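Entry 12.
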Amino acid sequence: MKTLSISGTARKATGAKNALELRRTGTVPCVLYGGKEQVTHFSVNEKQFAKLLYTPDAYLVTLDLDGKQTQAIVQEAQFNRVTDELLHVDFLEAKAGKTVTVKIPVVTHGSPKGVKMGGKLQVKLRRLKVKGLVENIPDKITLEVEHLELGESILVREMKNDKLKFLDPANAAVITVRTTREAEAAAPAPGATAATAATTAAAPAAAAPAAEAKKEDKPAAKK
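Predicted 3D structure (tokens):
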């Protein structure tokens, strides 16, 4: 995983009132779980979270709390539903050899066959929840999508990695090539061949001259 350093200060007081006062000064209340003390309360300047929380990458964080360093990962970040203000961040200690659960971003590689036929690529799960040893957690999960036809998907149960366990529902679609109206219009009818499609397309053009000829052969009306 990519690494990032964040410095914080231990909190002498806790509770809702103290957390509110911290936020008013642009500081975010945080908690570190899993250390020697099990739970450590601290605060971090909100600006330090810009790269950690507002990018698609996953990071292993080096927390510097009053000079003491600890490796950790973000377990959960809470935001205000109305203002999107960052309210609280939970960290989990991440020592080598320790099993952790974390969400990893999904990226795609290649242009699906179905997209070239007018379909639309959709990333249904932008992050996958995985479980594994800290040293085996990747920065991202790259999926090859070039082989996908119209209407085809990559499901969680199809994900293969000997070092990771995928925790999202097995039947959940990670990537899908959705069929669009344009793709449906361009697709030949079931069982139709290229020759059939060409004959069908040519039929209206051939019918037009015939109609004109029939019109010319019709005798003029008597005055």
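Annotation: Residues 193-207 have pLDDT under 50 and may be disordered. Helices lie at 16-24, 50-53, 113-116, 181-186, 194-217.
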